[in-house]
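Anyone opening a protein record will find just a pair of labelled lines. The record below illustrates this layout.
***
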Amino acid sequence: MDEEEDFYSPVVKMPTLKTFLSIACCNRWYIEQLDVQTAFLNGPIKSEVYVKQPDGYSNDQRKVYRLQKALYGLRESPLCWFQCLDQYLKVLGFTNFKIDSCLYSLKYNGHSIYLLVYVDDLLICGSDIDLINTIKSKLSLKFCMKLLGPVSNYLGIQIEYDRESGVMKLNQRRYIESLAKKYGVVESKSFRTPMEMGLQIEKPDTVAEHLPYRNLVGALLYVAAGTRPDISFSTNYLSRFQNGYNETLFNYAKSVLKYLSCTCNMSLSFGINNGNLLDCC
């Protein structure tokens, strides 16, 4: 096996997901969610990988097995699965976008179907529910699929979608609540802003390794990229100190989390002619 071989498997970008949902909402399209069961077991493996015989298998020849398909735990398994799914989607007539290889489109009888891939979690949307159901059936014949119905939760984002009125609200309340509990800020004093105005911090010369600063900042960046653009400046500012941080910086990061905790019901709102980016629901 080539040590320099790249086993990177693409996943959908967050801006692509939000654009996908926004366009679907504005057009009042149906959005259905699917989950592939044991996805990694479907991808043929190209490299030579051998495994021992399973426990309980009696054979005095002491043979090993060469894998024909991927297993969970192999570093190339995600890529093998993506290539397997990509090949089948193209057989069905889908083409993926150059700007994001995890977004696919299909044109059929004047209708457009779009499909989004994040490892084994799929979203499919379009104006023709019968065509969507046909695609779902074809995918189910090829792979073991769990049909989850209209989208309600994707990548930790709660999605409230009223197709008739063309209104969609996204929030990460559950994720924020789990972070607040993890970092012990549930009962803390509430903050009305994520960061004080004009804050200037000097980078420490040392790193307080015992503090989970990087983990917290990474989690905040995920929330900012997902549904809370109001903390984007604060989290990006704090991310400058990944190579030098102390207790003071960690407390500033917790202050951002405290702000999120007391405003966790705020949602990113999409809709036709909607002038409000963030709504409190």
Q: What stands out?
A: The radius of gyration is 23 Å. The chain has a mean pLDDT of 90.
